[in-house]
Task: structure prediction
Amino acid sequence: MKKEVFYTLCSRIFDYLNSDEQLTLFLEGEDSQYFRFNDSKLRQSGIIEDFNLTLSLYNKNKCLQSMTTISADLDSSVRTIIKEIDVLRSSFNATPPSDNIVFPDKFGSVEVNALGNLPERDNILDSLMGIIDKNTLTGVWSSGKIFRGCCASNGTKHWFEKDSFLFDFSLIDRNENMVKILYPHSNWNESEFHKVFRDASSQLSLMDKSRMELKPGKYRTWFEPCAVADFIDMFSWNGVSESSIRKGSSCFIKMRNEKKKLSPLFSLDESFTDLTTASFNTRGEVSSTVSIIKNGVFENALINSKTANEYNLESNYAEDENSWGMGEYFRSPFIHGGSLHDDDKLKALDTGLFMSNIHYLNWSDNLGGRITGLTRYVCYWVENGEMIAPIKTMRFDDSFYNFLGDNLEAVGEKVLARPVIDTYDGRNPGETNCPGILVNDFELTL
Result:
């Protein structure tokens, strides 16, 4: 869908509103090519062109929402949306008012066209099949355009369009050892992909050894950026949300109420400066960079307009609650890099654990900041800066107040972008930017 089509559609819908009504229209869309591979063979392919529209109809201090699917066919989409508005109108009399419901203010227009150089759809398989059969591979390729748009009846207009691809794959050897790789970009370079694949094959060859069984205990640990990103994802669940803090269910409460600090090496922002995801939310409000934790000191939570009205705060235009029941979650987290060069990470670790990925994370003690999960893929025992052997799968259980606090010894210099790989509701342009970290005591439990 083109920006002009979306703007024209919204304009026609706004003409249908009554004088006491206001409306926001938020678009999520994609035009994508998908390939699914198993055993290094193509098992499934498809093209998805999908556009979902969320309507938020306001009448004074009442608001009702609806979601529908639209297309580039203007007349058909207008008819579909008008039907949705009529259904919402019929429910207003049964809807209680709320003082916390306020129609968003008007914002200056945001328009981002993050164009890239994607491979032609007819050439993608030729580029991949010539190399992926060198190992047993399972994975999913997705590529194409991702769209976000928002218009409000007060004149706010935003558009975000991004070209990107992601190859999310695992290489598997005869003993079912696995190496997981995320290869995202906006500009396709076949030579670069071949290097990524060769590096993954080299990692897999390191796994072809007997696995060490470690005893429960605390170990020096190097976490690769993808593993760190998984930890940061947890902060979106009863963490960085101001509403969660106020309701007593946030892992950040100790930092707010008890002034507990993390390591001065750790700084975390919500940042939209790279323009890799839309800076506007579903209400059309535009977010700027928010400093969450600076040099270990908690500075700000994410606050949406509803929470701001409820507690008489200033909003930083975090996201409203979504269909998963999450609100005020990270859309573009950024951890500041440190001073440890990537070539020196094993030397700095000396003896301990090298963790590329972690899995099945959950809170074991939300208020205490304790996270439990499993080691996975390339998790190696290291001695004197040399990789010795892969380890058997272990469960960990530790608090980020420890491994991002006093036990954080160093932060990697190189900051990498880990894209959002979930496609439950379609492709997502968001990403987590973070370095690796070196922790001097990380607890494995069983």
User: Anything to note?
Assistant: The chain has a mean pLDDT of 95. The domain at 3-206 is CATH 3.30.2290.10 (PmbA/TldD fold). Residues 247 and 438 are 33 Å apart (CA to CA).
